[in-house]
Amino acid sequence: MYPLLICSSIVLAIVLERWYYFRKLKNYSNEMLEQVGILVQQEKFSEAIRISQAKNCPVSQVISAGIEQHEKSQEERDKILFRIGSRELRKMSRNISGLGIVAHVSPLIGLLGTVAGMIEAFKKIQELGGSVDPVVLAGGIWAALITTATGLTVAIPAMIFYHYFEGKIDRYYAQMKESVQLLSEWLGETHVDFDESNETINTKEDIEYGI
Fold it and tell me: What InterPro entries does the entry give (predicted)?
């Protein structure tokens, strides 16, 4: 039971830490995006950077860095933005894999506890020569099954929060991708798809892990 208590403590700590982290991030509104776009098209880059940096969110980090690098070629700028995007994804994904591990391991730990309890119960039956009170036997089985129930109780919330945070990261990834495309349009450059502009980076997972 102690390993499951440790797992539940890990889940609680990760959920609280990630919840606080995402709560601090601000959404980059469409109105602000349009305002920054107008300023970039008017070549008022300093003002556009100031407005972008007013928000603490991954999208603002990408946009402000892209505007700061507007004098560089599109290829050079995209490489810089991919590095920044990769860094932001790693920051958002920090510790979330721990939820996935706990969600997979907890039921197995619970099942192991149940199997151990059942082995102990049948061992006692053998020692008593088969003359066992059914009520006592049922009590032993009930106690053994508690570990499986506890494992599932830990695993289910861990899996729910794992997918919840993954969904948030997917939304920020989509917004960062869109912001890179918009920045190219504002600067009057050829549209390049976020995933196609770098042959070595094709998916969010690739960027997330810096492959």
Answer: ExbB/TolQ_transport, MotA_ExbB_proton_chnl
User: Over the range 101-116, which residues count as b (16 or more CB within 10 Å of their CB) and which as e?
Assistant: ebbebbbebbeebbee
Axis crossing angle, helix 96-127 with helix 2-24, rounded to the nearest 10 = 160
Task: Look at residue 164 in the predicted model and tell me its pLDDT.
Answer: 94
Q: pTM, whole model, 2 decimals? A: 0.77
Dmax (CA) of the chain? 91
| Rg (alpha carbons) of the chain, rounded to whole number | 26
Q: Can you give the residue ranges of every domain in the chain?
A: 1-200
Q: Is the pLDDT of residue 75 over 50?
A: yes
Distances (CA, A) of 173 to 155, 191, 204: 27, 18, 7
pLDDT at 81: 86
Q: 210 with 86: CB under 8 angstroms? A: yes
Task: Place 82 in a pLDDT band, splitting at 50, 70 and 90.
Answer: confident
Separation CA 113–CA 149 (nearest Å): 10
Give pLDDT, residue 130.
63
The dihedrals phi and psi of 118, each to the nearest 5 degrees, come to: -65, -40
**What six digits make up the tokens of 51?**
């407005």
56 burial level (CB within 10 Å; 0-12, 13-18, 19+): exposed
